[in-house]
Amino acid sequence: MENEERIRVLGFTKEWINLGIVDPETLERFFEEYSEGRDPHTEHYRWRAFQSYIRSKPSLDEITACSLYQLGENDPDIELGGSIMAAVLRRSDCPLKLLMKAAASDRDFLTNIATAKLPKGAPPQN
Asked: Which of 24, 46, 119, 123 has the most neighbouring CB atoms within 10 Å?
C-alpha cells in the first residue's frame, strides 16, 4: 500500500507530513498497528504523532505554532483538534497573535486558555 493511502486511512494530511510531524517510518508503524486492530481510533495515532513532535521541540517559531494550531482547527475529530489547539496555546512560546485569535474563539476552553495568558488590555482578534 502506498503512503498516500496510509495517510488517508489514518486521517493525516499532507500538512502533517510537510511539518515533519509524521515520517514514513512512523506512518508505516502506525498503519501496521491499525491494520492489526490494536487501535481502530485513527485520532489516537494523530495525537501520538503530535505529542511526540511537540515534545521534541524546545521552541516553536510563529509560523510553526500557527500551522500546528491550524492542524487542530482542520482535524475531522473535534476533540482531538481542540486538544492540539490547546496544547499549542499552553506553550510558553505561543505567539501573541495566536493567543489573540484564540481569545476570540467560539470554543470557551480555548478562549479561557488564551485570555489567561494575554497581557492585560490586549483585544481579541477574529
From this structure: 46
How many domains in the chain? Answer: 2
Mean residue pLDDT across the chain: 93
What percent of the chain shows pLDDT beyond 70?
Answer: 94
Global pTM reads 0.91
Contact criterion met (CB below 8 Å) for 109 and 82: yes
117 and 82 fall within a common domain: yes
Q: Do 45 and 75 reside in the same domain of the chain?
A: no
Question: Within a 13 Å sphere around the CA of 49, how many CA atoms are in the beta-carbon half?
Answer: 30
Q: pLDDT by residue (tens digit) across 35-80?
A: 999 999 999 999 999 999 999 999 999 999 999 999 999 999 999 9
Interatomic CA distance for residues 14 and 20, integer angstroms: 10
Residues 76 and 121 in one domain: yes
Q: Residues 52, 67: one domain?
A: no
Q: Within the chain, where are the H helices?
A: 3-10, 14-18, 24-35, 42-55, 62-74, 78-90, 96-103, 108-117
Biggest CA pair distance of the chain: 53
